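Ops channel
N.P.: pipeline sanity check, posting one input/output pair.
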């Protein structure tokens, strides 16, 4: 059990971004004692474990039931974002390796003149986004508007829609759509 407690404590501390020294200082336990617990060389008493967890803060029950090793990636570098677009439309999908994701979160780039096609798109769900730079013309049903930096949109994707960059500069925006379509 000491190994499991130590491993869980180290993983939780790392997850919260707390150094061993900082946690020891917060809970009033010596740094060496905390180190021995994390290495599995010492098994803490229930009261010592509670004292340590109170400094995080977390209950003892949550400590033993929290899934610290789901095996899912959390962070992605810019190079690791999968490009699921085509042609002059670049869709950098965050979490492409997650087959069970509930949403599609993307950084989209539309080169000058690029669009999603003459045919309007429809699918089940919702979509929202905000323009970071450049401009994008969005047509949703019979409505059309050109959005610039800082402007945003949110709509029901069952309504036919289309995106087009009418400008002379690339347009970058961040978007989120549900459900996650199979990109």
């Amino acid at each position: 059990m000491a190994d499991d407690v130590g491993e869980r404590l180290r993983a939780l501390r790392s997850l919260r971004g707390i150094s061993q020294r900082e946690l020891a200082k917060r809970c009033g336990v010596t740094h060496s004692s905390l180190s021995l617990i994390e290495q599995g060389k010492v098994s803490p008493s229930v009261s010592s474990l509670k004292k340590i967890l109170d400094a995080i803060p977390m209950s003892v029950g949550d400590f033993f039931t929290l899934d610290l090793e789901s095996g899912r990636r959390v962070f992605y570098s810019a190079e690791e974002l999968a490009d699921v677009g085509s042609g002059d439309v670049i869709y950098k999908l965050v979490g492409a390796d997650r087959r069970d994701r509930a949403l599609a979160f993307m950084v989209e780039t539309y080169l000058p003149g690029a669009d999603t096609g003459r045919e309007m798109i429809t699918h089940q769900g919702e979509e929202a986004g905000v323009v970071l730079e450049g401009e994008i013309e969005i047509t949703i049903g019979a409505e059309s508007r050109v959005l610039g930096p800082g402007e945003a949109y949110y709509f029901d994707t069952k309504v036919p829609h289309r995106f087009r960059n009418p400008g002379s500069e690339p347009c970058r925006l961040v978007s989120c759509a549900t459900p996650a379509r199979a990109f």
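N.P.: looks fine end to end. Strands lie at 82-83, 89-94, 104-110, 126-133, 136-140, 143-147, 152-156, 161-164, 171-178.
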